[in-house]
Amino acid sequence: MATPSNKNSKSHKRNRRGHIGLNVPNIVLDQTTGEYRVSHRVSPSGVYNGKQVIDKK
Compositional bias of type Basic residues: which residue ranges? Predict the structure, then answer.
């Protein structure tokens, strides 16, 4: 069974975990509808790249 030979300090542990974190989604203002949406996704109204791609029922 592997056991640690030396104690890792708090700074060493935090340096190792520095890449772990939350990613902020890239939210943009849609030019055609004026709604906020995540980039490279269809807007809630069904518009993508200035074209209606999904018909709302």
Answer: 9-19
d(CA 28, CA 47): 14
Amino acid (one-letter) located at 43? S
Give the pLDDT confidence score for residue 17 in this predicted structure: 86
What pTM does this model have? 0.50
Give yes or no for a contact between 50 and 38, defined as CB atoms under 8 angstroms apart: no
pLDDT at 9 over 90: yes
What the block records as the tokens of 7 is 């104690």
24-43 pLDDT tens trace? 889 999 887 788 889 999 88
User: Where are the extended beta strands (E) located within 1-57?
Assistant: 27-29, 36-38, 47-48, 51-52
- Which of 46, 50, 56 is closest to 32 using CA atoms? 50
